[in-house]
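Entry type: protein chain
Record version: 2
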Amino acid sequence: MCRSDVNFDGFRSRAKDESKPDWLLRLIKANDNQLDRQRGYRVSDIKSSAYGGFLDGAEIPNAHSTVAYIRTAGCALASSESRYYRSETIAKELEEAINYLLKIQHSDGTIDLLSTNFHSTPDTGFIVKWLVPVYIIVLREEGNRYSTQLELLKTFLQRAGECLIVGGIHTPNHRWVVSGALTKLNELWPNPRYEARIDEWLSEHIDMDPDGQYNEKSTLIYSPLTDRVLITIAKGAKSRNCTNLCVEI
């Protein structure tokens, strides 16, 4: 079961009569437009081994394009102002997309980044970080409307968690990406093995220099990424009363 007492900041349901700010309405509209574009890359041939998955620009079905659709579709289904709010068609496509994702997930829980990384723990960590908010957003819908999609997504996420517990990394920032993903999984399904792996990575200490940069010296991409996931880890450490980790972060 998913924890019901977790305070998911940023994912609270709004009252039906509560108006949303204009910037959020624009985002919902942009999300709908993105969904329109993504659907053009869907593998709709039921005889295809990639049925339900999504193609990249080279017309190769892959995990990342499929995850991008799952994120967009999940937000649309749960947004009352969306053109696709509670769409049965989109809900079915979401189910088929998650099924494809499960099909290409390796037995160890990892996925491939087809351009370079295979059986990749860190790339799986990125995907977990992207998909947990989708799970939370869809979970808040009334009743058991999307119970099938949620159960499939839960299966993918928990299988992915197994590789994050033991898998290695490619670059320094991946320690924190994996730990951030485990933090989000632990909020949904508390597991001492998740916590032990987070603590193991944090025991190496954070590689920040006096200028606020990390080992990779990547001002544009990996420094802000590391900042974000460390904040996620710190919030998770605080919620499980690990004040020593909060101090470290």
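Comment: Residues 11 and 137 are 6 Å apart (CA to CA).
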